[in-house]
Design a protein that fits this description.
The protein is α/β, with parallel strands linked by helices. The protein contains 16 helices and 26 strands. It is globular, with a radius of gyration of 23 Å.
């Protein structure tokens, strides 16, 4: 299986039917495929050889979808850039996997000068905005207009398709390597786990496309030949207006997005009666928020997906039937569902021995959706994939019916607003402050973000430091979503007899009385 297969089917069977709507742009499957074929040729002319990485730093748009499929059509590998990162982090991700071609839109074109200064790999920048092409860049539309379409590159399912960067446990992002086969089969298995009406279906893509969730939704839509309305970035009114005007039938949102949509002051003004399915994931959802959302959208079915970038990304699903009233509903809604058809899931102890139903351990998974590894990080790859199972770092248990419950996080990771934040990245930034003797970064409950990044700091004797200065310093070093939202100062941090930091002692008071220790 390979990712451009669906485009041939779409051009042949639904050439004139709408494939993508993005602002004023509306593309049929035939026109979209022609643009993809020309983009693949253009990237080859710019120096993209088979297997080369191509980056994109942009808001969602039809061009972002073209970038995915055009790179694959030409035989390349996508490296979609996290637009919330600062230039240092972006440059690292480009250089780590030797990304020489970068596409940028109007919003990020002003950063190109700094990226050229910071990056050793970047050679060619393609401008895919709506204004005049900046000096030193190549115009996207001129490229397509001046390039003849080429045949789709031959692919195998094992061929690398994407390097998607996620936070690193040692303070550096890791490039997750996903193949054509893993992304294809995961999309098909997710559709099978959450059946949707393909005949009248209309989708909206509001999740950022640099994220595996946004990419995965685009792949699912293309496999099903479902028209998708692309929203540049998440905005409550833009989403509500698109849902009504486009008569959208299905969408994916992370819990923080759901909260912002249903609590918007103008929510009640919009006709959302066509919305048949809302599936959510990327972070656990609070039971009160889920109940509030189901009451706000009584005609909409709800479903949950759980996974991670390393799993392409879905591994379990909780279908709409589990959200219906019944004696077992409250229990099921606390779960992440059952494994999708292609996935094996186990709960294991510290020696990787499978645990019986009901016992808490680490959630591990294997199957054709598992990543190939971390780019140029063999030790971390071996640790994550030991024994042939992807070790998620999430603590949980499985009941006798096969439902998976996520109750804790075994990796030192925080999920805030659907974004992964590794404590080491934040602690490394804080450690650069000369006033800091020690620090520990933990996730604490937050009504808006699920979890927020919280820093506990020990100051050096005789040195002053305020919370505002810590946050401002972090913003200059790492992406804003990784920065502490709250800071506390202590005289000492809890250490074991061996001198190891005991973070659980810092976390326990914040999570006391909660059924799970993830937000």
């Amino acid at each position: 299986m390979y990712l451009t297969q669906s485009l041939h089917k779409g051009r042949r069977e639904k050439g004139e039917a709408t494939a993508i709507v993005s602002g004023a742009h509306r593309l049929g499957f035939g026109e979209f495929t022609d643009r993809v074929a020309r983009l693949g040729a253009a990237l080859q002319q710019l120096g993209m050889a088979r297997g080369d990485r191509v980056g994109m730093m942009s808001l969602n748009s039809h061009r972002f979808v073209e970038y995915f499929f055009g790179t694959w059509w030409g035989g390349g590998v996508v490296n979609p850039v996290n637009i919330r990162w600062n230039p240092k982090e972006v440059a690292y991700s480009l250089d780590d996997c030797d990304t020489r071609i970068l596409l940028v839109d109007d919003l990020f074109a002003p950063l190109v000068g700094e990226l050229r200064r910071l990056s050793t790999s970047l050679r060619t920048v393609v401008y895919c905005g709506e204004r005049e092409v900046p000096e030193g860049m190549v115009g996207y539309e001129a490229l397509l207009a001046g390039t003849a379409a080429i045949d789709d590159a031959p692919h195998t399912g094992d061929e690398l398709a994407a390097v998607m960067y996620t936070g690193g446990t040692t303070g550096r992002p890791k490039g997750v390597m996903l193949s054509h086969g893993s992304l294809c089969i995961n999309a098909l298995a997710t559709v099978a786990a959450l059946p949707r009406d393909g005949h009248e279906a209309v989708s909206i893509v509001a999740a950022p496309m640099f994220h595996v969730a946004g990419c995965g939704i685009a792949i699912q839509n293309m496999l099903r030949l479902v028209p998708m309305h692309v929203v540049p970035m998440f905005d409550e009114l833009a989403v509500l207006d698109t849902l009504q005007q486009a008569r959208v039938t299905e969408m994916f949102l992370v819990p923080t997005m759901i909260k912002r949509v249903i609590e918007h002051p103008r929510f009640g003004e919009f006709d959302l009666s066509r919305l048949k399915l809302l599936f959510y994931g990327a972070a656990p959802i609070d039971a009160a928020l889920l109940d509030q959302a189901m009451r706000a959208l009584p005609a909409t079915a709800f479903a949950q997906v759980y996974g991670m970038t390393e799993l392409s990304p879905v591994v379990t699903a909780l279908p709409p039937r589990c959200h219906l009233p019944g004696p077992d509903r409250d229990r099921l809604l606390r779960s992440a569902g059952t494994p999708i058809a292609i996935a094996e899931v186990r709960i294991v102890d510290g020696e990787d021995r499978e645990l019986p139903a009901g016992q808490v351990g680490e959630i591990v998974a294997r199957g054709p959706m598992v990543m190939q590894g971390y780019w140029n990080k063999p030790a971390e790859t071996e640790a994550a994939l030991r024994g042939g199972w992807m070790h998620t770092g999430d603590g949980g248990y499985m009941d006798a019916q096969g439902f998976v419950f996520v109750v804790d996080r075994m990796k030192d990771m925080i999920v805030s607003g659907g974004e992964n934040v590794y404590s080491a990245e934040v602690e490394n930034a804080i450690a650069q402050l000369p006033q800091v003797l020690m620090s520990a970064v933990i996730g604490v409950p937050d009504d808006q973000w699920g979890e927020r990044v919280h820093a506990v700091i020990v100051r050096r004797e005789g040195m002053a430091l305020e919370a505002e200065a810590v946050i401002a310093h972090c913003r200059a070093q790492i992406a804003s979503y990784k920065c502490p939202r709250s800071v506390e100062f202590r005289d000492a941090l809890p250490l074991s007899a061996a001198g190891k930091l005991q973070k659980f002692q810092l976390r326990d008071p914040y999570w006391a009385g909660k059924q799970r220790r993830v937000g």
